[in-house]
Design goal:
Blueprint lengths: L2 H15 L25 E3 L9 H5 L5 E5 L12 E6 L8 H5 L5 E4 L13 E2 L12 E3 L20 H4 L12 H8 L7 H5 L6 H9 L3 H8 L6 H7 L3 H4 L12 H11 L3 H8 L10 E5 L3 H12 L3 E5 L8 H4 L8 H13 L3 E3 L10 H6 L3 E4 L5 E2 L12 E3 H9 L9 E5 L3 H12 L3 E6 L10 H9 L3 E4 L1 E8 L5 E12 L7 E4 L5 E4 L2 E4 L3 E2 L7 H4 L4 E2 L2 E2 L12 E3 L11 H20 L3
Parallel strand pairs: 7-8, 7-10, 8-9, 10-24, 12-20, 13-14, 13-20, 14-15
Antiparallel strand pairs: 1-4, 2-3, 3-5, 4-6, 11-21, 16-17, 17-18, 17-19, 22-23
Bound molecules: iron/sulfur cluster (2 copies).
One iron/sulfur cluster (SF4) binds next to helix 2.
Length: 597
């Protein structure tokens, strides 16, 4: 007898044996069975904490997640405004999306029952469609179990005791290995791109670095930033402020990665070889640029690539404006700026140095002999302290002090210095004074946490021995018989909030104190000098609070006159915003001259 035949006889007998037994599956039909606390059912998303980065959607191998707009959630810097919607006809409950969620907003719950005749009910926006889900979380990913890496690769730097002895660069740059590791932390969500004033292609160049293709990274970077090595060293990095990883950890070191890539191109020739920009055939139009700062250089570079005959007029002997004369060399070495400008000259940008508009060449001549003018003159005049005795010998403006230092001139500030201010420029003055051997105190009206200066710079200053005097308001410069600074009188301040606004410092009566010092450096802001402009232009140039009013194309109220940089009302006062102005004006000038609406 074959085995098959034997099975045919035995199987009915085996089945008969079960007839006398009660079916156990229906013993307790009303009993609620406990679900494993770690059961993975539907997701729950904390909609407030979610930043709409889409990393969950990108990782899902079942294409179960779409990012959708919700009527009550608006996009803002650092939040796309989109939220994940999950198709439970596709989801396999693997929870990879939870593992990669940088904000930790996405979780899984033990809920899994949903009965509906409507097939679209299988699409759910977690958090919106199951608000009670937060009470039943069954799987979450904290920063220790997340697949994201929340700690950045530290940047090596000179020891504080060592660095105050010279103007050597403080930060030493990433090694190749460090750069690859740091670049691989990026989740490529692109939220950073939106917050960068020039919308650099950040995930793309970071990905190129992670893949080991530094040349591709350099080429991508130069696509919309002509001074990227400068940005790689001193950019105010609005991108990092909203990096998805900084929600629960440290932002990707976007600035340092840009520095790493651009430093691979060691000189202007190598930059040109790698970037190999497409340069349009020359057209018949001429454009003048006034000021070779970041905004002016940017407009000059990109207009030259578009075939325009561009000439830059610069009052100083070197290019760069504030980045050359205002940023100390321990942050931004001279060679770094020069290399980038040499590259621009190689592609055809013409710069007339030591040419003061309004003196060596008249504005009207420039205006009448060009088809468009881009003006980026910056803020060249400093605000005075505005207190008794501020004309004393030994009272410096930050711009004059830093300008002399960067020009290599000798500056005598004595043994003890008080710097007044709270922005990056004030910190630069303090740290430079320290490098000149002075004992340095920094007076600021508000609290340390209110200082607009970069925290990294504040910490660097503290490490170098600078003493901060928060909540102090200078009231009088004390002079000696020769009219030289002898000390600074100040009052202490308490922070008061009125009407729920930003706390402001209120002088405390009777708290007058004097600090003896040999020099005082006022770093309390700058204003523009428009003396280069003739009366008939000034009469029609729309201004607000001493700044030039421009539209979104950086067009002023004067035909064919565009403006950008610190002297215009739009944007922030930093180099990357000036670069954005130059880039935007380039497109607008091109459109105007080519007749494109
Ligand atoms: S990964 Fe997290 S933060 Fe990003 S969209 Fe998805 S749920 Fe929101
Ligand atoms: S649990 Fe897995 S399959 Fe389901 S949405 Fe998340 S990543 Fe996709």
């Amino acid at each position: 007898m074959s085995i098959l035949n034997l099975k045919g006889i035995l199987t009915p007998m085996t089945a008969l044996k079960q007839i006398s037994k009660e079916p156990h599956t229906i013993n307790f039909p009303d009993e609620q069975k406990d679900i494993s606390p770690r059961y993975r059912g539907f997701h729950y998303n904390d909609l407030e904490a979610c930043i709409g980065c889409g990393n969950c959607s990108t990782i899902c191998m079942n294409d179960a997640i779409d990012m959708v707009a919700l009527s009550d959630i608006a996009g803002q810097p650092g939040d796309s405004g989109l939220r994940p919607q999950i198709d439970y006809g596709r989801c396999c409950y693997c929870a990879l999306c939870v593992d990669v969620c940088p904000s930790g907003s996405l979780n899984m719950t033990s809920d899994f029952i949903k009965v509906s005749p409507d097939p679209y009910d299988f699409l759910m926006v977690p958090g919106k469609d199951n608000p009670d889900g937060k009470e039943k979380l069954s799987f979450t990913a904290d920063i220790d179990t997340s697949l994201n890496v929340f700690d950045r690769v530290p940047m090596r730097e000179l020891d504080p005791q060592e660095r105050v002895k010279s103007f050597a660069e403080v930060f030493l740059g990433y090694t190749e290995e460090e750069a690859r590791i740091e670049a691989s932390r990026c989740i490529s969500c692109g939220l950073c791109t939106e917050n960068c004033p020039v919308h650099m292609h950040i995930p793309e160049y970071i990905n190129a670095i992670a893949q080991g293709d530094d040349e591709a990274a350099v080429k991508i970077i130069y696509d919309n930033n002509d001074l990227p090595e400068m940005c790689g060293k001193v950019c105010t990095r609005h991108c990092e402020d909203i990096c998805a990883l900084q929600v629960r950890g440290e932002a990707v070191a976007i600035r340092w990665l840009k520095r790493y890539a651009t430093e691979r191109a060691e000189n202007a020739d190598i930059i040109k070889e790698i970037v190999n920009p497409e340069i349009r055939e020359p057209n018949q139009y001429k454009v003048a640029v006034i000021g070779a700062g970041p905004g002016g250089l940017t407009a000059a570079y990109y207009l030259t690539l578009r075939g325009y005959d561009v000439t830059v007029y610069e009052a100083h002997k070197d290019p760069g404006g504030m980045i050359m004369y205002g940023i100390p060399k321990y942050r931004l070495p001279y060679d770094s700026i020069q290399k980038q400008v040499d590259y621009m000259k190689e592609v055809g940008v013409k710069i007339h140095f030591n040419t003061v508009v309004g003196k060596d060449i008249m504005f009207d001549d420039i205006y009448n002999n060009n088809d468009a003018v881009f003006m980026a003159v910056g803020l060249q005049d400093a605000w005075n302290l505005g207190i008794e005795g501020d004309d004393a010998e030994g009272v410096w403006s930050a711009i004059k002090f830093l300008g002399k230092i960067n020009a290599g001139e000798q500056v005598d500030i004595g043994k003890k210095v008080v710097v007044v201010g709270g922005g990056d420029v004030s910190i630069d003055c303090s740290r430079v004074s320290r490098r000149l051997g002075a004992e340095v105190y920094q007076s600021y009206r508000r609290r340390i946490q209110d200082m607009p200066a970069d925290l990294e710079e504040i910490e660097g200053a503290e490490a170098e021995g600078i003493t901060f005097m928060p909540q102090t308001i200078p009231t009088r410069v004390i002079k000696d018989e020769q009219g030289k600074v002898k000390g600074l009188e100040y009052v202490h301040a308490e922070m008061v909030s009125e009407g729920g606004g930003r706390p402001r410092p209120k002088p405390i009566e009777g708290s007058e104190t004097v600090i003896e010092c040999d020099a005082i450096i006022a770093a309390i802001g700058q204003k523009a000098d428009y003396s280069l402009l003739p009366e008939h232009i000034l009469a029609h140039l729309k201004m607000e609070k001493n700044k030039i009013v421009v539209d979104e194309n950086r067009q002023t109220s004067i035909p064919k006159l565009f403006a950008g940089g610190d002297a215009v009302v739009i944007g922030r006062n930093d180099a990357i915003s000036a670069i954005a102005d130059g880039f935007i004006a380039t497109k607008a000038i091109d459109n105007m001259l080519m007749g494109i609406k």
